[in-house]
Amino acid sequence: MSTRFNLWKRYKSTIRHQLPFKRRVKNYSSYWDQEVVIDLQTQLGNMKKVGKGLRNKLGKEERDAKISGGVYMFSIGSNDYMSPFLTNSSSSLLFHTSSSRFVAMVLANLTAVVKDIYDMGGRKFVFMNVPTLGCLPAMRLLMKNPNGKCYEEQVSELAKLHNARLSTVVLPRLARELKGFKYSLFDFSTSLHRRMTHPSNYGLKEGEEACCGTGKWRGIDSCGGKRSVKKEFEVCNNPTEYLFWDSFHLTDTAYHQMAREIWNPTPPPSSTITKTSPLAIVGPYTLHQLFHAAIHH
């Protein structure tokens, strides 16, 4: 269950059973008008249908064992927070309530679905936080920041608020309330920021401009000429040297690195560590530990 950022490509061949209930925010913008969009509640409904099918095929005991042994990954929030700015829609709920309440609603939806999966027998969960959205090439271009720095107001503030509540309120509360609940939280925001500010430490040459797209930072999402916004586009010579593939997504090189980080992390380069960034960006379990953790009901 995810938004735009997918770390599973690196390891999906090693996982025998994967049910990709992929989540994106509903279709607000032409940026996503050619994509299949499934909301979170629909994905949950699809999972319940799969559960019933497994029971009919395997029996209740084996079905329950598979559900309880599964690992459920959530990466939500980015599109919820970006969409109002991408569409400049005054009707968006974000512009009619406080940032705090809007973030609370997003996290309440997440919490409700986690509890539903827990009630079905799920015990192992993985969460990714939200990156600094104002640093994405598309958002830099949209905000027309003259100094070229990340747009730190509004959209990035929503991301910071989301991440703080997820790590300090939502997940600790779920761990207290749900017996046997185990989770891994991947600090995607810090991982991405380190690569943006110190790309050479990760074998990259470019940490801000996208490989494929149009305009400054290649922030116009025209890659492939399939978007209605612009048919022309540029592509870099060597995507492996870039952090961003297009205005929203990372390159395979970056995703592979992050997949290794969440699976079994190693200490980051010392030059990327600051007083405000944590040393460990995965916890309390790594993904490898979570897959092998004992299940308690």
TrEMBL record:
Report whether Signal shows up as a keyword of the record.
yes
Keywords linked to the UniProt accession: Signal
Q: Which InterPro entries match?
A: GDSL, GLIP1-5/GLL25, SGNH_hydro_sf
Molecular function (GO) terms for this protein are: lipase activity
- Keyword Transmembrane helix listed? The answer is no
Q: Which family does it belong to?
A: Belongs to the 'GDSL' lipolytic enzyme family.
Q: What is this protein called?
A: Uncharacterized protein
Tell me which species this is from: Linum tenue
